[in-house]
Structures are given as structure tokens and as C-alpha cells.
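Posting for a labmate who doesn't have an account.
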Amino acid sequence: MAQLAIVVGPGHGHNEFVSWLLNLILRDFEPHSPHLYELYPGEFGTFIRHDDDWNLLGDRQYKDIYNQKIRNGVGVGHAMARHQFDLLCTEVEKLTFCRKLVQYVNVTNVEEVATWAREKEISTFTAWIDLPNTAFRSHYAMMEYSLGAAEDQDYNKSIYNLEHVADWLINKNTQQEELVLNSGVDCLVDVNKILSLDIVEIKRVSNMLGDYELDDNELQWLLDEIKHFTFINEPKHNMMCQLNYLKWDELTSLDKTH
């Protein structure tokens, strides 16, 4: 029987990264490697994110149920339905390959899911990507403007300029403020601080998992894993580099006529 914790939030916002980080802290994934990735190739380069299946290979039946019936919200606007939440709780209780599992659900009704989880004393986490202050905006833009990420865009044409991408980032920030910031989750994970190797934030998030104090060796290992992730996703495209160093008010003042 495994204990469940949930990372809840919309896609293209590093919730997969948060889930990966928390499962690393638990150190309950042997013998599986934490380096299983999903690629997002696009005109701004290829973004490399962690695959949610990396620590589920010990139970392929559960992995299939998670991917086919649980991971993505089936309700209006990609909201998680209550039957999906109940199925997640039931299936994780059956698991024997781990003692505790942090599972990401790609849904938009963050506050509602946090309420359901609170009723069952399940811890909830979500990523706060703090777009006005982050130096990693390219991560989110590269995911969004990748092949197949959005069906209504023609990625065969190079039609995206800085103003277009800035407009999307502003809308993404609004989504974060509306869905995530005051959602009532147990732990709002400041991803910008984590990627910037803020030890205080890493330890704060670790403590939210329960009795999981990081010793010096574990902390250094975790920092090295985070460094590797930022290294493989360092942008090479000029526009993506611009996104990371421009001030937020400079991005918001750009002409949005495209």
C-alpha cells in the first residue's frame, strides 16, 4: 500500500518538474533512472522535460491506467472529474513497488482538487513559475511553441515574433494568478527559486513531504540533478535568450499587434 501526494495544475508550467523533484526527495524509485525524458522540438529549439512515467515502470498496469484515465482532466476546460480523483486514490493504495508516490495531474480545477485531497488528508503541491521574476521563461515558451503542443498553430511556418511570445507569457501569468496562486494547495512551489538552487526553498518543499530531512550528501545530489536539468535546457535561440533577460515591464510594453 502506497501513500499518495498530488501535484496539481495546468500543463506547460513545470508541474512535471515539481513531481519529479518530490519523488527524488523521497528516494523511493530504485532501480529506475530519473533520466527519462519527453522531448518538445520546435522552431525555438528542443525543450527536454521529465517523463511522468520514469518512476512508474515498476507497475505497468498502473502506468497505463494513470496515462489513459487519470493524468489529464476530462471535464470542461480540462478539469479533473471526481471519478478520476477517486480512481487515482484507489489505484495508488494498491501499489507495492513504492511506499509513497507523488503523482502529477494535468488539470485546471486546482482549488477543487486541493479540497478533495484535504478531505482525504492527501498533501497537494503546485508549481508557481513567477513569470515576472524568473530567468527561465524560455522553458515555458519552448514547451508551448513546440510541434504538436497546440493544435491550432501552424508550426511549419516561422510566424512567431517576440511580441507574440510575450503575449502568450502574459496570458500564462494571468492563468497562474487565477488558477494557482490562491488555490489553497498545501505547498506552492516557487520553481524559479528551485531552478536558481535556493537551498532554503528546496528544504522548505522537502519538509512539506513529512519526515524527509535532506542530509548534506542528498542535498548536493539534488542540486546536481537540478543543475543538469537547467544545463540541458539552456536556450540557444536568440529570442529565447531575450525572454530570459528582459524585464517584465519591457515584455508587457511590447506592441501586441504581431
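Reply:
Got it, the C-alpha cells are right above this. Residues 193 and 200 are 9 Å apart (CA to CA).
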